[in-house]
What does this fold into?
Amino acid sequence: MALIDIEPREIRAQMMDDLQRALKKPTDKRHWAMVIDLGKCIGCTACTTACVAENHLPPGVVYRPVTETEDGKYPNVRKSFLPRPCMQCDKPPCVKVCPASATWKRSDGIVEIDYQKCIGCRYCVTACPYSARTFDKGFFYSDGTPYIPQYEQLPSFEYGKEWPRKNRESSPVGNARKCTYCLHRLEKGMLPACVTTCLGDATYFGDANDPQSLVAQLLGSPRLKRLKSEEGTKPTTAYLV
Amino acid sequence: MKRNIKGLIWVLAVIGFGVGLYGMYLRFSTGHRLTNYGSYIPWGLWVAAYIYFIGLSAGSFLLSTLVYVARIEKLEKIGKLALFTAFACLVAALISIWLDIGHEFRVYRVLFHPNFESMMSWMGILYSSYFLVILIELWFAMRVDLIATAGTGKGGSAFLAKVLSFGSNDVSKEAKTRDARVLRVLGVIGVPLAIAFHGGVGALFGVVGARPHWHSGLTPIAFLVGALASGGALFAVATYLWGGYEDKDQLDDVMRFLGKVVLALVLFDFLLEISEILVGLYPGIPAESMPLKALLTGPHWYVFWIVHFLLGVVLPSFLLFKWAVPAGPSGRRAGGAVAVACLLVVVTFLAVRLNIVIPAQINPEIAGLQTAFTGPGLQYTYLPSAMEWLVSVWVTSFSVLLFLIGEKLLPIAGTENSEVAE
It folds into this structure.
């Protein structure tokens, strides 16, 4: 594969160029996609942490955990890591089951939740085969301490809106939540937080509809796999294994 | 004896209501933070309680149609009782599921912004229709008695009857014939409706492809059979205590009939369960067999083996075979034994519902997810918290009290059902 020749610096630069090109197109002409190279993932969970920080995720809510599995017998032991953002399925089971029409597949490929419409029934949480949705019960990290510091009340900017955490009742508390591919960052011309922080440049991001983009090229790789493709969910997030 | 039992139920319901209030206080002051369900096991006790109560309601309602549609003479007297039992259980089910959602006050969205691809949206529509059918049916079934009570009765009963009769005072033969016709039509509408909504709840689970423990064509059928078994059993218990039969032979006869129906349904339901378990275990596909193994030999094995199998299938079947199956008056009273057997079926059926809801969710959908990130609600083990139990105790007590008070004030039992007798 030609990609082996790409220098890390070039990867970032190319993804930024891809992003700017995509943003010039109308929304419905883009199809955001993520490709994660498992051969390059070192399991540092910098992406998980960056995601928590970027989206001000409270305890119990996680958008991009990295699973760790160990195979083989000493001394032939192998560790493998799997970062698991939302798959942004083209046929999302979570959307189909929502009783309140509060979640849908956007024309740019991202599965969106409207926090003001979600009733918190968690049917989507049970229906997702990847456990990509979590339920915000209204915890703060400072629970059990005398007061809730201001930094815990700062708004997250998911879906380009402001979601301050002033109390334990208002959305997104009581809602299902999930990875948005950092849509709010994309629209400001920035890559998702997990992509910018990935130490090993293992996470690629861009517009799958643009044949010149890095992700579009990677999507043609013979190493490409999609998680649980047998479920018929047609995930947008893909892996190089 | 019966008076004592009724008194005991009153006492238990009042205590449960009082103690459960603390759970309700916690639910509204701390939201979902004291519950043990969360992100990886999103549905817990309250969802199980919801399908438990909705099953009791559907089963009881379907049996009431035996009176108003099939016109089984033996049961004429207890049609209203079946309807009112179904109503009280429906209320408990709706409160259970309402308390389970994250934004209780947005529940209207299910009705006003439905997604017709979602089984849960259909539930909203079907429950609303069912609620209306049950209320209208109850009103027509009680109309003549309400008018009578309003005229002759005293105190709260008469006042309530006057209000609830909505000014209707026609007790002519034509009016009664019309009532019977209306009841029959509503019953006929009610049968497919009850099958649709309870089969629908089964489908709500059955369509979730991500959970092999639910994803089966048998799920909606098992829900229906379970509803008939548990709802029928509840109806039998209610008949024994509140059926208003003066003639003990007649009561024994009705109880034996209901006992046989319940016995057949309990055994058929168990057959469906065995089929699901054996077929699911055989190929050893982890996603399918893990929930079943957890159910049979996991840390909470006793829910299946002791509560469900021993107390909910073996013991009631034994009692029903002994007391309900032998024909005719045997010199001994069968009613009490049948009622005890049915009570066992009703109470232990919550175990069946829990064993549907919980084991399906204990499997990490991606290997290693259980340790990848920690936090409240990110576990794959579940036992309801004290607060969850308290809330369910309150909901149960509330609906029992609703039933007891309704039974006291409204002409539900003990009066001849003139609508059917005509």
User: Anything to note?
Assistant: Chain B touches chain A through 47 residues (CB under 8 Å). The longest helix of chain B spans residues 119-152.
